[in-house]
Amino acid sequence: MGKRPDRPTIVYANRVREAWPDVPIVIGGLEASLRRFAHYDYWDDKVRRSILFDAPADLLVYGMGESATAEIARRLARKASPSELTDIPGTAYITDQVGELKFHRADAPGYEAVCADKAAYARATKIEYDEHDPIRGCAVVQPCEGRYLVVNPPARPLRREELDALYALPYTRQVHPMYKNGIPAIEEVQFSITHNRGCFGGCNFCALAFHQGRMVTSRSIESVLEEAELLTREPGFKGYIHDVGGPSANFRHTSCQKQKRCGMCKNRSCLAPEPCPNLDADHSEYTELLRRMREIPGIKRVFVRSGIRYDYMLQDKDRSFFKELVKYHISGQLKVAPEHCVSSVLDYMGKPHFDVFLKFWRQYQKLNEEGGTEQYLVPYLMSSHPGCTLSDAVELAEFLHKNGRTPEQVQDFYPTPGTLSTCMYYTGIDPRDMSEVYVARDPKEKAMQRALLQWSRPEKRALVVEALEETGRTDLIGYEKKCLIRPRKGEPYGQPPVKPEKPEKPEKPERQPRRKKEASGNRGRRGTPTAKPLAQKGKMSPRKKAAFAKKRNGK
User: Fold this and answer.
1) In this structure, how many other beta carbons lie within 10 angstroms of the beta carbon of residue 337?
2) How is residue 281 annotated by DSSP?
């Protein structure tokens, strides 16, 4: 293993073209989807042209690709030329001249323009996102080095019947035979079920919206249950369905009815920063699916381990799903993704504000207390996202410390081709409104932000101290309850304040010596002039103690 080259789509397409010059080549998959336009590449730290210009293919299929792939196969079987396949949704191609298009046209700044001007790159990103809609989207045209890239609108999501047919195909459910010793990662997904596709959550750092799209579709309950029954007959099945989920586990349908007619809204997220008034938050079908799966013979437990959109769940007035999720479907911990606690950072991420997470957390704790269960939340957190300053990272660290949270894992932001957050990272511009965005690009600052979220680790201490010094928050180094770390010997932090010197007391007047009492008949009494002086107080040696005891006993 370990023989796959970097940028495999480009490498393999070139090798195929060398071997079979006249054979039509179609590329697809996640790499082709996210790199279909001119894009910022983190490896090269520069803008690269569309992957179609480097991989000598006739067509690019983006998204999940089932409809486009079937249509391409049908036409090629009828001896159509690849140059004629220019009207298929969910595909892209290169042409010397842009003639009449089947779809409405939207022009994006060209490759040379986005390389030279970051504002042009941000405008191009906005156009690409706005037109990524199967109902109202246009074909986006982007010039590149004297030719033109044409990206047709995305294909419509598969209907429920089509999804059911796709998942009913006779998959082997085994790793490829080339892996002689198996794949450890297969254990987590081998007995998991995908019931939906797409996500209208709209997180700006997530590439899924640019690949699967924001329209959610799902399989029928019967299709999912049939797969669950198949899993019970698989070797190695022990009665546990590890996950019934997808991009977001609790989505089963489009976010609203209007979306089916008009497509996704431009310049509007369904959930953040506030849920849309038209949002249709309904978990009844998902609840029924999980109930029926629990009743299948041979299944002991059904877990939900994909991420839950808690903001969507809180909009559902029927709390049945929430209660049953806590009671039946959590294997000790539930994964959620608040990502941060600072509102400005969450706005750049496209996430709901933190008070929504706190509300969910309180309700989650209450349900566990009522049920007598001890189950935990595992929050996904991200450092150094565009818009996040070092001070913002300190604020998040304070929140975690105050609530007794010490994250084992923290995701540090790295730019993925095709996302809004990557555009912010490269340009320093928010493409949604063209405003300026602070970006932590320096590796040292990125390391400090991440270290702040894992302040308790000894190997992170030096970075934490440096970050607190830079932000003027050395008050968090000390012995108080709020402090993140303790000071070490020789450090000028957290030392107790120096007590002020006491004022000197005025000298007292000399006391007159007392008059000596005259000797009386009380000879030998204590306090009389004839009394013997008292022996000095202190410990007796063992030898003296023995002599004293002998004398006292008259021996």
Assistant:
1) 21
2) -
Round to whole Å and give the CA distance between 376 and 115: 47
Question: Terminus-to-terminus CA distance in the chain, angstroms?
Answer: 97
Burial of 292 (0-12, 13-18, 19+ CB in 10 A): middle
CB neighbour list of residue 489: distance below 8 Å, 6 or more residues apart:
none
The three-state secondary structure class of 60 is strand
- Helix 461-470 × helix 390-402 angle, to 10°: 120
Which tokens sit at 467?
């970050």
Q: Is the peptide bond before 273 cis (omega within 30 degrees of 0)?
A: yes
Asked which of 177-191, 502-516, 529-543 is least confident by mean pLDDT, the reply is: 529-543
Phi, psi of 118 (to 5 degrees): -70, -30
Q: Position of tokens 């699967």? A: 212
Q: At 81, list the tokens.
A: 């030329």
The string of pLDDT tens digits covering residues 427-486 is 999 999 999 999 999 999 999 999 999 999 999 999 999 999 999 999 999 999 999 999
Identity at 242, one-letter amino acid code: H
Say if CB 362 and CB 368 are below 8 A apart: no
What is the secondary structure of 187-198 as a DSSP string?
A: HHHTTEEE-EE-
Q: Contact at 8 Å (CB) between 292 and 366?
A: no
Parallel/antiparallel/unpaired status of strands 147-151 and 192-194? unpaired
339-352 tens-digit pLDDT: 999 999 999 999 99
Q: What value, to the nearest 5°, has the Cα angle with vertex 254 and ends 250 and 257?
A: 135
Both tokens assigned to 13? 């397409």
Q: What angle do CA 252, 253, 257 make, to 5 degrees?
A: 160
Q: How much is the pTM?
A: 0.86
